[in-house]
Amino acid sequence: MPRGDARPPEPRRLGLEEAAACLARGGVVIFPTETLYAIGCRADKGRACARICEIKGRPGGSPLPLLAAGQEQAARAARLEEAPRRLLDAFWPGPLSLLLPALPGVAPQARNGAGLAALRVTSHPLAARLASLAGFALTASSANFSGAAPAARAEDLDPALLAALALSGGETGLLAAATPGEEPGGGPPSTLVQPLPGARALRLLRAGAVSAEALEAAGFRVET
Fold first, then answer.
1. How many domains are there within the chain?
2. Which residues sit opposite 118 in a β-bridge?
3. Is 10 inside a domain boundary?
4. Does any domain span residue 7?
5. Residue 159 is part of which domain span?
6. What secondary structure, in 3-state letters, does 29-95 show?
7. Could you tell me the CATH number of the domain that includes residue 141?
């Protein structure tokens, strides 16, 4: 790390198309989502996924969550047929993540021991365009060291995290919100549920932005 008054290194600031190209080449980019800034890569790039886990100090056995531009892209990362169609249509795009069987192209760091991945279709316009242009679903873990505070504004990103990313090797970048409408909204993370056998049963694995009451109002039985 730099000494004295030297400024810590930072990843290069990128435009949308530059950031997407970086991801397509196996790079790692920080970008805004509905709630917080995320650090991510293409979910089919195992080396990039491993870099993210190392940068964050993410514990083993804690898979990276996934974000897709739409249902068509999501279907290339996980078996959407394992989820009720009415659930997808009611809550996607939005902050509801589903634990579903991952398809073979998804990197090991983005699936749990049972081969399941936590996947959502994002409602954030910039994140959706980024995933679409990158060509595959993205990992979208909060842009902070594991256990540290996340950031909803680019200026609040931890300088030490930015330096760790810049020094991690390989391509990196920061895609910052360019307009107020692209800023993350803060608040709780996405809700995580696992569809259970039967068309209307869900297991609540993490409470978040979509309440259990909202899921029940849509006709689903929610178990904890």
1. 1
2. 99
3. no
4. no
5. 17-178
6. EEEECCCCEEEECECCCHHHHHHHHHHHCCCCCCCCCEEECCHHHHCCCECHHHCCHHHHHHHCCCC
7. 3.90.870.10
Half-sphere exposure of 191 (CA within 13 A, CB side): 22
Alpha-carbon distance values, 176 to 14, 40, 144, 219 (Å): 8, 13, 15, 38
Q: What is the pLDDT of residue 5?
A: 57
CA distance 134 to 33: 15
Contact 77, 117 (CB under 8 A): yes
Q: What percent of the chain has pLDDT over 90?
A: 88
- Identify whether 45 is part of a domain: yes
Compute and round to an integer the Cα radius of gyration of the chain: 17
pLDDT digits (tens, 9 = 90+) for 124-146: 999 999 999 999 999 999 999 99
Q: What is the dihedral of CA 16, 70, 27, 41, to 10 degrees?
A: 130
